[in-house]
Amino acid sequence: GENVEQHPSTLSVQEGDSAVIKCTYSDSASNYFPWYKQELGKRPQLIIDIRSNVGEKKDQRIAVTLNKTAKHFSLHITETQPEDSAVYFCAARGIFGNEKLTFGTGTRLTIIP
Amino acid sequence: EAQVTQNPRYLITVTGKKLTVTCSQNMNHEYMSWYRQDPGLGLRQIYYSMNVEVTDKGDVPEGYKVSRKEKRNFPLILESPSPNQTSLYFCASSSPGLMNTEAFFGQGTRLTVV
Question: Could you read off the pLDDT of B7-62 as tens digits, one per residue?
C-alpha cells in the first residue's frame, strides 16, 4: 500500500519568512495530493491540492509543487503570518480501487512574531 | 451547508463498555472513512466504506467495527474499548473517482478509555 513520509515534524519560522514542508510517496499510481491544515482543537481542512497532471499550483501565499518522477511534493507558504501556525498534513490518493487517502505524520508550524 | 457531523465531541468511558460514535454527512458522498489521530502518528485510517453495505479495513482496524446501512451514516463501534483506544477520532467523507474531490472531516471525537 501507499506510504507517505513528511518532513520536518516541527518547523519554526520568523513572521514574514517562507516555510517549506516536504512529502514523499511510494505508490506511483497515486494521482491526487491534498494538503490539510489543522488548527488547535479543530478538524483538518483542505488548503490546497494538486493532481498528477500538474507540476505546480498556487493560491495566494501558498503553493504546492509535484515531482512525479521523484515521487515527492512540497508545500510552500510565503510571507508567513501568525495565523499560519498550525499542523499541516500532506496526503496521497489514487482512483478507481485505490481511493484511500494516506496521510503523512504532520508538521507543526510555528510562526514567531 | 455541506457538513460532516460527529457525535459525541467528547467521551470518557470505562474499559469494556460498548460505545458508538456516530457520523453523518449531507453531501451524498459515496466514500466515508474513520481515522484516529495520535501524536507523532498523523491520521491513520481505521475503516472505510465505498458505498452502502460495502466496508473494509483500513490500517488499524483491530478493536473497531463499522456499518453502512444508509449512505449518509457511518457509525464507529467499539465493542469492548481498551485504554489503547484513547485517541482523537475523525470521520471523513468524499466522492472519489475522476474528480478526486476533497475529503470533508467531522469535528472530531476525543475518546478517553479508563
Answer: 999 999 999 999 999 999 999 998 999 999 999 899 999 999 989 999 999 999 99
Query: Most distant CA pair in chain B: distance in Å?
Result: 44
Asked if A101 and B107 come within 8 Å (Cβ–Cβ), the reply is no
Using an 8 Å CB-CB cutoff, list residues of chain B that contact chain A. Answer: 31, 33, 35, 40-45, 48, 50, 58-59, 90, 92, 94, 96-98, 100, 102-103, 105-108
> Distance (Å) from the C-alpha of residue A43 to the closest C-alpha of chain B?
5
Nearest of B35, B68, B27 to residue B50 by alpha carbon: B68
CA distance B88 to chain A (A): 10
Query: Phi, psi at residue B84, to the nearest 5°?
Result: -75, 0
* Interface touch A101/B103, C-beta < 8 Å: yes
Chain B residues within 8 A of A44 when measuring between CB atoms = 43, 90, 105
Query: In this predicted model, what pLDDT tens digit does every residue of A16-64 receive, in sequence order?
Result: 999 999 999 999 888 889 999 999 999 999 999 998 888 999 999 999 9
